[in-house]
Write a structure and sequence with these properties.
Blueprint: H1 2-6, E1 15-17, H2 24-33, E2 36-39, H3 41-46, H4 54-60, E3 64-66, H5 79-92, H6 102-109, H7 111-116, E4 148-150, E5 157-159, H8 160-165
Parallel strand pairs: 1-2, 2-3
Antiparallel strand pairs: 4-5
Length: 193
């Protein structure tokens, strides 16, 4: 990293991935030069690469984004999993108790990630003029066990029972299935004739 800085290549245009074995002087260089740092917690854990010094990066003011790596070293391309692991790993990356990480995890997955990709002017926040894909979450089911179904809008999910009784333009499977067809297993039993 010192070589990159000496050559003038450690700057905001650079994206630094994983960052699991950083010394404090390297963290200071990252804070000074302001490149994007993208953490891929699930891939790092699966590949046994290590745990990034999340709290040290935060305290230094480094811009942290979140990624899911790729399918070969991460079981799921799921930003909710990445945010959860980010929040959990922040606690084990520093033995001294620190602040709650939910807001930092959400910011890393959205705003900071967009800025790191140099798209912060167009995506990463819900604001006028910004592009957005929205996911609505049913917070009454905190465990996430209830089936959900896609109803009407491309960004709205409701419990399947609510779809059957709502006046929305529900897909055919809403009233007849506990979950969308693409989430159900196909039966391996053959029907008797």
């Amino acid at each position: 990293m010192k070589r990159l800085a000496a050559e003038g290549n450690l700057d905001p245009r650079l994206t630094w991935h994983n960052s699991v074995w950083l010394a404090q002087d390297e963290i200071d260089l990252l804070a000074e030069a302001a490149p994007a740092v993208v953490l891929n917690p699930q891939g790092n854990l699966k590949m046994k690469c290590g745990i990034p010094p999340i709290r040290a990066l935060q305290e230094a003011g480094v811009r942290i984004g979140l990624g899911c790596d790729n399918c070969s070293c991460s079981d799921a391309q799921n930003m909710f999993v990445a945010m959860k692991l980010y929040a959990l790993l922040a606690a084990v990356s520093d033995p001294i108790p620190g602040p709650p990480q939910a807001v930092n995890a959400l910011q890393a997955a959205t705003e900071a990630g967009a800025e790191g990709a140099r798209l912060g002017h167009a995506i990463g926040r819900i604001a006028p003029g910004y592009k957005a894909d929205l996911t609505l979450i049913d917070m009454s089911d905190r465990a996430g066990h209830r089936s959900t179904a896609r109803c009407g809008s491309s960004c709205m999910w409701k419990p399947a029972a609510a779809c059957a009784t709502s006046s929305s333009t529900a897909p055919w499977w809403c009233a007849t299935a506990a979950s969308p067809p693409w989430t159900r297993r196909k039966s391996t039993r053959r029907s008797k004739r």
